[in-house]
Amino acid sequence: MEAPLSTREIDRIEGTAIPVRGDNIDTDRIIPARFLKAITFDGLGDHVFEDDRAAMPGHPFANPAYAGARILLANENFGSGSSREHAPQALKRWGIEACVGESFAEIFRGNSLAIGLACVTAPPDAIDGLMSRVEAAPATPLALSLAGRVVEADGLRVAITVEDQVRDALLAGTWDATGLLLDDFDVVRGVASRVPYVRGF
Amino acid sequence: MGRTLLKKVWDLHTVRPLSTGQTQLFIGLHLIHEVTTPQAFDMLRSRGIGVAFPERTFATTDHIIPTLDQARPFADPLAEAMLSALERNCREFGIPLWNLDSDRQGIVHVIGPELGLTQPGMTIACGDSHTSTHGALGAVALGIGTSQVRDVLASQSLAMSPLKVRRISVDGELAAGVFAKDVVLEIIHRLGVKGGVGHAYEYGGSVIDAMSIDERLTVCNMSIEGGARVGYVNPDETTFDYLRGRPLAPAGDAFDRAVSWWRSMASDPGAGYDDVVQIDAADIEPRVTWGINPGQSVGVSGRIPSAGSNGGVAEALAFMGLAGGDPIRGTKIDVAFVGSCTNSRLSDLREAARIAKGRRVAGHVKALVVPGSQAVRAAAEAEGLDEVFRAAGFEWRGAGCSMCLAMNPDRLEGRQVCASSSNRNFKGRQGSPTGRTLLMSPAMVAAAALAGEVTDVRAVLPASAS
Ligand code: SF4
């Protein structure tokens, strides 16, 4: 069961990072479909990248050095494919609180925002710099500031891009949209009553 | 400047701008299924919120259902729990459910159009990325995640960021043996799997104009594989003819009024697009994927690319066990799957049956045909397609998602290679972590099933085809 409406303001995310190299890492890889056969999101964190971990012994999520990481580093089009929210849910339940990548698939980004998981982008060379640093020293502490639009890793400063609306929603704690969408429900009813197919032509 | 269909639909459905800079959009039709909704209903319950418009919400079951033995309780207790949860939630919140005992049950993206529920000018949401399919009828159809399902249940609306519109014009004439599936695989190959991020794809041009609704559904279905959130075709006479007489489409005078409104929602002739892409139909041949994303495809007469310094290609070839430089034709297959929301409609089954008729599936190949809905299954049986398939050695199954994602008993084993008419060739997609998928048109799947390997369907087309 999900906690009752409790959105929280999100600005700084601090902790170690986990680099997941590769473009177009799809949500079937983040959480294989067989783990969707459940009526809750509980326990998904244990199955993050399960098949990739089995197939690639060196996979970062199989490497104890990255246990406890809070920031995921990604390349291009991370989270492509299926719209399953189980993917960001699994990452969040594993402990990830923010993703910094070259780019993200659109539905993944929206699903992440809806659960308060920040997805921000940086240019390829900057991502590579962060990844290399973390690979060389997994214990490197990172600090991501949404307000300051920057990630810092032990002296390395990387400017991040985040859409104003995403940043504002996270900073203001309005990323859980339900309350916002129900704020003025009469207007929703008003729109319904003017749409021809709802009125029955 | 004229407006696009996307802009018209967006403006009509705008509830209000949100403080976050997004727009609150009214959702006219919400389709739900068993996989992405149980948590959404739990969130509603725990917050004490009801369903705002249960009469604009429709449910079916497709992902987890077995396609052979559908007796309840299912052999798989997890699948049983999911369908039971959907049944309970629909009952509690007053949402109609087309369950296994309904002749309206089927893959959510097959039944929406088939029932006439999907209509031009609508906003549609569903907790499934292939919701883009419904754009074939001129709707703006959005795939969403579970928290957004909760939002739509609660408020019949979504918080959306604006989309750009890319017009993709496919002109000329498709050669015999080249299908809608090949068109969309070509588009994704050219524009890339993330080429459409931030965009709606508007498909047009003489090839799209000449397509049936079934074919347009196939094209729009895979918009998401090109990164586009939404894909649509402007409504035209083909659309109106398709909808006339469908069980849940407007009837009588209301239908005529609907048609004039639908017509008005199409993009204006001078509409402004963020960009335009032209594709010549003459360049398109039957396509086959060789890699681990749907952009990694090649014409059937072509060769698998060499990795060179491209890490993505190298990873794909290693997983697929294919060698760069080899022809794709002749790649051995173990399984052939005709089905999925991309290609499981009556016309798809007809094309596959036309190839299979009077021939035999290769001895080492397991081949199955899974109709997209109970209605498709009944219509196919009325034409005797089931007999054609059975006689050729294909299994004929009940309606559902089946081996498209293998959340049910239909799945690959070990490193099997599957010629599949579905939409995703991701690692592990068809149920075995090491299983391999080659995406192609249903006719190409049938041809591969017979030959036991990837083959050019153009060589086995019956004479009447050309
Ligand atoms: S057929 Fe495949 S892609 Fe379509 S809805 Fe079912 S699982 Fe998703």
Give the mean pLDDT of chain A.
Answer: 94
Any low-confidence stretches of chain A, pLDDT <50, length ≥5?
A: 1-5
Helical proportion of chain A, percent range: 25-40%
Count every helix of chain B, treating DSSP H or I runs of 4 or more residues as helices.
Answer: 15
> What is the share of helical residues of chain B?
25-40%
The major beta sheet of chain B can be summarized as: 5 strands, parallel
> Structural class per helix/strand content of chain B?
alpha/beta
Strand element count of chain A = 8
Q: Work out the helix count of chain A.
A: 9
Structural class of chain A: alpha/beta
Order of helices and strands of chain A: EEHHEHEHEHEEEHHHH
How much strand of chain B?
A: 15-25%
Regarding quaternary structure, what we see is heterodimer
Mean pLDDT over the residues of chain B: 96
Helix-strand layout with pairing:
The complex is a heterodimer of chains A (201) and B (466).
Chain A: E1 12-15, E2 17-20, H1 27-30, H2 50-55, E3 71-74, H3 86-94, E4 98-101, H4 106-114, E5 118-121, H5 124-136, E6 142-145, E7 150-153, E8 156-159, H6 164-172, H7 177-182, H8 185-194, H9 196-199
Chain B: H1 5-13, E1 14-17, E2 23-26, E3 29-32, H2 38-47, E4 57-60, H3 77-93, E5 97-98, H4 108-115, E6 123-126, E7 140-143, H5 146-155, E8 157-160, E9 164-171, H6 180-191, E10 199-204, H7 206-210, H8 213-221, E11 230-233, H9 237-243, H10 253-265, E12 275-280, E13 287-289, E14 297-299, H11 311-320, E15 335-338, H12 346-356, E16 366-369, H13 374-382, H14 385-392, E17 395-396, E18 417-420, E19 436-439, H15 442-451
Parallel strand pairs in B: 3-4, 3-6, 4-5, 6-7, 9-10, 9-12, 10-11, 15-16, 15-18, 16-17, 18-19
Antiparallel strand pairs in B: 1-2, 2-8, 13-14
Bound molecules: iron/sulfur cluster.
